[in-house]
Amino acid sequence: MLPDALALRLEDCDTLPSLPSAVLRVLELSRCPEASTSDYAAAIEPDPALTLRVMALANSAFYSRQAGEVHQCQDAVGRLGTDATLAAALSFGLRDLEVPDRFWHRALTAATAARELARRLCPEAASRLFTAALLQDVGILALVALEGEAYASRLECLVQHPELAVAEREAYGCDHARVGAWLARDWGASLDLARLIADSHGPLTADDPQRLCLRLSGRVADAHLADDASLAFAKLGQLLERFGDLEGLPSLSLERLLGEVCDALPAMTELFALTGMPSLDRTQVLLEGKQRLFALTLHLCARLEDHHRQLDALREENDALDIKTRTDPLTGLANRGWLEHSIEQRLQAAERAGQGLALLFIDLDHFKALNDRHGHGVGDTALVNFATALRDLIREGDLAGRYGGEEFLVVLPDQGSDGARRVAARLLRLLEAQPMAEGQDETLYLSASIGIATLETGPFRSAMQMIDAADRQMYRAKRGGRGRVASLKPA
């Protein structure tokens, strides 16, 4: 389907390409399954030029598998078949339009490639696909008639066909393949032919041999016309390898396909009176293409390796930065921001899972006096050693962090009040047994006041509520004499 606005403009355009009456009669016959070769010959013979061209095609090398020369239009139609006769009539009927030869170069190369591909994948559709491939770009003629120079300038992109289709979709809401299907139906072509034209420019897929032949034919034509044909065919070979599991395709080598297309094109270009068709040395093209692709692969591998090194370095920098933003620089434990973020997440997770969560709020007793008497350097050493001891004490999956100054938090997932009190008791015993620093004249031991909050004593709507609850219990422990644990009893 075309966008409504574009369809209206095409319907009102009085400069669309038209077909000779004989070709229109052939198109009409193509919609009648019971039409005979005699009917086709009768439609063609009133046009002497078309008759001569159809007979020339039937006697060309393209159909050299059949012996003998034909001298009657009906015999020529019988040799070609109705699908090929229709293709010949349409192509010869359009050949006199003022379109750059490059348009016909692509159309003829694509048609030839579609025919050769179909002979291996779907022989019964070879002639039909030849016709569809030959007309797959006929929508360009309609857009030239509709837009004039505004569209004709885009024809410079024809050798990069995907880019042309993208530009068309941006400008008109569809590409020329769909416009071509509309034009074919306007001429009276069958719905089947119009659908093939509309479907000719999609992505390559291996689910339908006819669709693959038709869509691949355009890629072959683009490679044949490319400024760097060797590299273009090398990349096309990579595409073909993607479809190696399709029945019939393993026997189709790119070298063989290119050879068949190159063998058939001279006779076809002569029939169409085309000039300037690229002549390729198939062996040299494929050899150079493999060499170029190998060199390109090496270059890309080197760039990819360098890219990976850069990514690894960036990842290491990001990891270091991430650790820095989450870590207290003195103790190496989690900092206040990360503690609050983690408690919030773990609180929500515990509530969803119906699990426990406990929080220890630890304040080192008389720490200001320690700093005043022994200096901040000794105080920092004590904090670092306490952090190390705390890290060794907790389980994997627990989280310890410095909340500020001499205040620390320990987050205990899936723990209740009893488990939290056991952890706090072990910490107090450790502080009694292990010194945390050396003063000028004494070994320094620390004590701590610890407050506990758990979900058993909640509920808590936020991390800050839970931290405040543990903080209040810590102050209760201080008021009770320091060096002890305080917590609310579970409800």
Write the layout of secondary structure elements.
Layout: H1 4-12, H2 21-30, H3 37-44, H4 48-58, H5 73-80, H6 82-94, H7 101-121, H8 126-134, H9 139-147, H10 149-152, H11 161-172, H12 176-187, H13 191-198, H14 209-225, H15 229-241, H16 254-271, H17 282-326, H18 336-353, E1 357-364, H19 367-374, H20 376-393, E2 399-404, E3 407-413, H21 417-433, E4 437-438, E5 443-444, E6 448-454, H22 463-479, E7 485-487
Parallel strand pairs: 6-7
Antiparallel strand pairs: 1-3, 1-6, 2-3, 4-5
Helix pairs in contact: 2-3, 2-6, 3-5, 4-5, 4-6, 6-8, 7-8, 7-14, 7-16, 8-13, 8-14, 9-12, 12-13, 14-15, 15-17, 19-20
Shape: rod-shaped
Order of helices and strands: HHHHHHHHHHHHHHHHHHEHHEEHEEEHE
Beta percentage is 5-15%
Poorly predicted runs of 5 or more residues: none
Strand order of the largest sheet: 2-3-1-6-7
Explain this structure:
- The chain is 62% helix and 7% strand.
- With 491 residues, it is α+β, with helices and mostly antiparallel strands.
- The strands form two sheets. Strands 2-3-1-6-7 form a five-stranded mixed β-sheet, with helices on both faces.
- Helix 2 (21-30) packs antiparallel against helix 3 (37-44), helix 8 (126-134) crosses helix 14 and helix 15 packs across helix 17.
- The protein is rod-shaped, with a radius of gyration of 41 Å.
- The mean pLDDT is 82.
List keywords for this structure.
five-stranded mixed sheet, single chain, 62% helix, alpha+beta, 491 residues
